[in-house]
Amino acid sequence: MIIAIDGPAAAGKGTLSRQIAETYGFQHLDTGLTYRATAKALLDAGLPLDNEEVAEKIAREVELAGLDRDILSAHAIGEAASKIAVMPAVRRALVEAQRTFSQRKPGTVLDGRDIGTVVCPDAAVKLYVTASPEVRAKRRYDEILSRGGEADFAEIFADVQKRDERDMGRADSPLRPAEDAHLLDTSEMSIEAAFQAAKVIIDAALKK
Ligand code: CDP
Ligand code: CDP
């Protein structure tokens, strides 16, 4: 069984995916990390971010086993990831790796932007997790403060909007809900409430 979780930045996809994976004993892949790992490898090697052929070669070398959100969390890496994510050759390479991962075990949760529409169009459960841009920016802001960092809300809000435009506006695999996705607007939901809503949908699919 494959569970596809898509949605914009800071909607709560990762938090929900990890809870689902833990509850049902499923493997989990945060596909955003594959774009981030490719971007970091390019940055570390001093390679250009605007050469599709070079970026594809690096994307094909990404090891799914070593992906770590802490190592890949830097803002500059996220920015670079969102730039190379518009390149069709990079997407093809990473989608291949994501599909291979999804077939490795009987239960899988994948989260990203195009899981229900492109990576796993036959997923048994598709959730499109979203929240208003204000709420998502506030979540990112709180996250930084809680780690003892400093943040500027207006800057984060502008960043969320820019990320949305790039994700929804690209020609290849733009962010949008799959036709058969369940929409989950978490703007006014706690993490637990969002999980309970998802659980009802997953349990119904498991009974089929
Ligand atoms: O993976 P994605 O970027 O969609 O979001 P996330 O990293 O799971 O969540 C972003 C932040 O929002 C985290 O700090 C979560 O704890 C928080 N969050 C929340 O406050 N309420 C929710 N319903 C979901 C997430
Ligand atoms: O930084 P943020 O939490 O918004 O995103 P992420 O999930 O860490 O992914 C980094 C970048 O990769 C995003 O800006 C997306 O544009 C891109 N991405 C994608 O195009 N397709 C996916 N399935 C996952 C991520």
Automatic annotation (TrEMBL):
The main enzyme category here is transferase
E.C. code: 2.7.4.25
Q: Which UniProt keywords apply?
A: ATP-binding, Cytoplasm, Kinase, Nucleotide-binding, Transferase
Extract one GO molecular function annotation from the record.
Answer: kinase activity
Give the UniProt subcellular location, in the record's own words.
Cytoplasm
CDD domains reported for this sequence? CMPK
Specify the superkingdom.
Bacteria
> What reaction is this protein's catalytic activity?
dCMP + ATP = dCDP + ADP; CMP + ATP = CDP + ADP
Q: Where is it mostly found?
A: cytoplasm
Q: Which family does it belong to?
A: Belongs to the cytidylate kinase family. Type 1 subfamily.
Q: NCBIfam families of this UniProt entry?
A: cmk
This protein is called Cytidylate kinase
Q: Which organism is it from?
A: Neorhizobium turbinariae
Q: Which gene encodes it?
A: cmk
